[in-house]
Sequence to fold (233 residues):
Amino acid sequence: MENNELLFNLQKYDIVIKNAAAELNSFLSRKDEINADVKNREAEAAACEQKLKANSADTSKLEKEIEFAETQIKKSTDRFLLIKTEKELAKYTAELEKLNSDKGALEEKLLALMERQEKLGARLKKLKAEYERVKAESVEKTSEIDQKIDASRAELDKLNSHRREFVSGIPASAVEEYDRLAASKNGLAVALVSNKICSGCHLSISDNTLCQARFKGGLIHCPSCQRIIFIQP
Fold:
């Protein structure tokens, strides 16, 4: 078997190996996506829980402010019997109105916080349920993918082992030339010629070059794309 034919067959090996590696990477990526989804849902639930705790703290703080406002109103009310002049009454009335107004504003804020607390609680419950569901599903899914990953890795190891055996039967200089071209030609170092057309660049090849490829020893390259050309017998 000529070196160009050996290299053409080696290229077939490499294409199969490349596809097998791509399949393995797709399984690994899918597993990463599943794990990332679980982590994202866990993080979302944790963030909601933090908001719930912060809202609860704000609610407690506001309740204390309302309690303090009620104390101030009571103190102000207790001073009513001490009022002696209309001026003092006007000042007292204005002060009491402001205290009641401030208390009312605080109570509105408290109501809003309590409503938000209820919504956050419901959302947290939903997020935790979704997290637990996705987490449980991920265990089954990743188990199936792990089996595919193991099988894919075993197949890839087998292919690489066969490739090493196959390469051992090809002259080192030819393999070196093949590897150089494969690196620069997106893995396609050898081009099949059909009807005088190079499958690599789709340009015609002269009869002289074709004769060299058929009868002359050594590797013959396409004049246009520089790939090694191979003409099937």
User: Anything to note?
Assistant: The chain has a mean pLDDT of 95. The longest strand covers residues 190-194.
